[in-house]
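User:
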Amino acid sequence: METEFKYKGWRMAPRHHVVITGTGRTGTTFLVELLTHLGINTGFRPEDLSRFKNEVARAGLEHDIREPSAPYLVKNPKFAEYAADVLADANIVIEHVLIPMRDLAAAAESRRHVTRSAVAKMPLLKRAKRFFHSRELAGGLWNSSSLKAGAQEQVLLAHLYQLVLALADANIPVTLIKYPRLVHDGSYLYSKLQPILKNITEEDFLRVYDVVAQPDLVHKFSDTDQWSGHNSQRSLKAA
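Assistant: Predicted structure:
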């Protein structure tokens, strides 16, 4: 039974949300695009998605669940940084947490790649200023300016542990989704997302998935940063 709380004399019911989070660079923006086209409240309209994305990093479409206006489905890779506070907030009910998972070295290298690409496109003066004030770039390095192998991996590992530790203290369903498989295998992704899809059939899901998914855009950053297709649920059904 939900507990009501008062705000300026009004009785208010808790806000319900689904959260997409993790290390980022794992297809989270694609998930928001897909779920938007499927009619789930992500805070975006299908025709407006491109305006809120960073095309260089293929990132964006994020909200802060702490904002009263946050939509039902909230994507934010940095949720881990304040997860404990949100989970303790009686005003917020998290129905489900979705965590796409990618090879750690590949996720880190993807952030290094985005940073290098973004910096290379900057004017010379702006690039020089980064030596004195390194601003975080969309889809780029987190909490570190080091491009050395291993540095970003440590940041992401600590971030993911912080997230899992906070979730371990709560009774919330958590679903792990493998990247890049999620952009190749629609039936697999449907099975993973079923708890939040309500009455959406697999047939309708796959129709939208086949339009939105762009597996050709996926970069491979390590030997294990790929999907072979041998576990395709759609292939197994067709066999």
